[in-house]
## 1
Amino acid sequence: MTFIRRMLSCAVLATTVGAGLALPVSASAQAASPVCVDATNSRANNTDVRLWACLDHVNQKFVIDAGQIKVKDTIGTAREVCLDTTNSRANNTKVRLWTCLDHVNQKFVIDAGQIKVKDTIGTAREVCLDATNSRANNTKVRLWTCLDHTNQKFVIDAGQIKVKDTLS
């Protein structure tokens, strides 16, 4: 009898503790903070473009102008800065900052939430900006073959380029 009481009290305790941790079926876990494309604090050529928690900060403000994605705080200065793909279109190539030029490395098209490298559109292998599988601060933005994947879905909102799967 003592054994049965002890087992029942353990079961009640486990149920009580577990009940405090469980979510109702209709509830969902809270979404993580939104993540944005970030130009870092540097505007130097060859600076890696990264992901960072969305903030109301100049490092995350961009303007799309004639296919170029320009860092907003450089517009109208002697040296405007753009997102640049380098001369490579290989998977895992970093996206960087570079002085804005009228060059294919800086021409993009936004298509169904994907940011595609313009000179690859209509080819056998279109290339997109890709957030990788991480949403951690300082994760580098890269190029990858365009896929219907959350790593390549972005929302442009108030000058910010947000990773869509981080929005609630």
## 2
Amino acid sequence: MVETAIDASLVGEKLDRALDQLRKLASLRPDDPTFLRLQERYLELRDRLDQGETKRPVELAGEVTAVEDLLESALAG
């Protein structure tokens, strides 16, 4: 079985990058419904990580990646 290199610290780093993107989006469109939904999703993911949800870091990392992708799209659009 191949061991995964994804752990809680990597998920935390991804969340930190997502937070930077959220801040950029907030400065551009603070009342945008997309921003508000992504902010809520970010907070939920951060809370899950902070609560110790590290049993499935690959799954959590995938969810964070989805948020990052949506943030990039929102910033580009």
